[in-house]
Amino acid sequence: MREQLPNLQPTWDLMIQKRKFCMHSVYVKMMKADRVPWRYLIQDKYARPRAITLTWMACHGRLSTKDRLRKHGFITDRVCSLCNADDETHDHLMFGCSVAKGIWKHVLHWLGIKHDPQPWSMEIDWLIRMIGKKGWRFRVLKIALAETVYEVWHYRNDIIFRGNTHRSTSIDIANRIIEKVIYRGWYSPKLRKQIATLMP
Q1: CA atoms of 66 and 112, how far apart (whole Å)
Q2: I need a labelling partner for 116 at 20 to 30 A (CA). Which of 9, 104, 130, 180 fits?
Q3: Could you tell me the pTM of the whole model?
């Protein structure tokens, strides 16, 4: 993306001039970047733009996980905020962590997909193969991935910065993701009928 930053500059300047940030404009510009194998994972108009952007960052391995923050000298803590494992790395958090893995597995089960989640690099390979298949279930899978990455990251940050004052459980998070997928997928007339069959 470093090579693509000059293309984003006019959009950025316009947003500064208007004093209003528009995630959609940044998203559209990012979609014109060089092609990568996982590009179809984030090319989805139904998931929330913030969820797609966070998934894009995850695909680049740029989430501020504790191993990255420790590497730059910002923190000394290395314990995973979700499962208290020894090291919070990108691959661990998405989806090697037992809590994050359980959330993603619950969402996949709701979709009727039998799969044992793996750490991020292996999960991306599996997802690329899955979304290449035809059928509505795999279109909904893209929405579910983006919303899961966003909610897991949000849950992790809630624990770190707020001490999880809401006392959400992993089942609560999984159900919230399912609600978002239903809500966002309902916008598509092509997906609406199929999503209705998944509703509890």
Answers
A1: 33
A2: 180
A3: 0.80
What's the rounded Cα separation, in Å, for the pair 112 and 75? Answer: 40
Q: pLDDT tens digits, residue range 110-159?
A: 999 999 999 998 999 999 999 888 888 888 999 999 999 999 999 999 98
Q: What tens digit of pLDDT does each residue of 82-101 get?
A: 998 888 999 999 999 999 99
| Token output for 99 | 């809590």
